[in-house]
Specification:
single chain; about 250 residues; alpha/beta; six-stranded mixed beta sheet; 7 helices; 14 strands; globular
Length: about 250
């Protein structure tokens, strides 16, 4: 099997919201679906690579926030590809329950106050649901890697770990200013929302321990292992402090 190619798809400028296409030797996997109405941007990115919706063999949704799952239902119709996600976020994918949000700073508070993160999207039932401890082999979909639970950002967040020692981690970590922004793009930061920082830190550490050297993000530019290591350790210290104060 040939090496995978990771194509970053900017849903908003400056890497503020990203989807990714993993191009394998016999098909592509789409990681996340952007905000509602993102189908055109994703189709354009595919065309620029000489691809089409028909080349997408699987859609992975890393978690149920609007900017990651917003166009999932529409993209499933457009591509015919199944959706895989984690059962922990199932009530939110089905639009049966409203998500709770734990802001990490002013950006999260702003998104909540303006109602941006609360924007509704078309509900859907994932075709495949991972449970804790389960993984999905991506080789049948043309990509050398796996989907695995990496809980903590939400109750059902997942990541993709590739044989190339790269990982696509959704919102386990962000980079730059303003969720991407123009400066400090190589600096790891917390995303606008995060449910359990220690759990996130532990998930990132497991990926580092497995040999991942490059991390692709839902918000911001990719990060190397050293910077993610620093961030994971900071999250675990924060989690310990929060537990001590609880």
């Amino acid at each position: 099997m040939t090496a995978n190619t990771i194509i970053q798809v900017p849903i908003l400028p400056f890497g503020m919201v990203n989807c990714h296409i993993i191009k394998g030797d016999s098909g592509c996997v789409l990681v996340d679906a952007g905000t509602p109405g993102s189908e055109g941007r994703i189709e354009k990115a595919l065309r620029e690579q000489g691809l089409s919706f028909g080349d997408i063999r699987l859609i992975v949704i890393t978690h149920a926030h609007m900017d990651h799952a917003g166009s999932a239902a529409a993209l499933r119709r457009a591509t015919g590809a199944p959706i895989v996600a984690h059962e922990g976020d199932l009530p939110h994918y089905r639009r049966e329950a409203r998500m709770t949000f734990c802001p990490t700073g002013w950006a999260g508070r702003y998104l909540l106050r303006r109602g941006i993160i609360l924007r509704p999207y078309e509900g859907f039932q994932p075709d495949m649901l991972l449970r804790s401890g389960e993984t999905l082999d991506l080789r049948p979909y043309g990509v050398e890697g796996r989907v695995l639970p990496t809980l903590g950002h939400t109750a059902g967040s997942v990541s993709i770990e590739l044989a190339s020692r790269e990982a696509l981690v959704g919102d386990l970590v962000s980079s730059g200013v303003l969720m991407g922004g123009l400066i400090r793009t190589g600096r790891a930061i917390r995303p606008p929302f995060e449910e359990a920082p220690r759990t996130v830190g532990e998930a990132l550490q497991r990926l580092l321990d497995s040999g991942v050297t490059r991390f692709y993000l839902g918000h911001g530019d990719p990060l190397g292992a050293e910077e993610v290591q620093r961030h994971a350790q900071a999250l675990m210290r924060l989690g310990t402090l929060q537990s001590a104060l609880a």
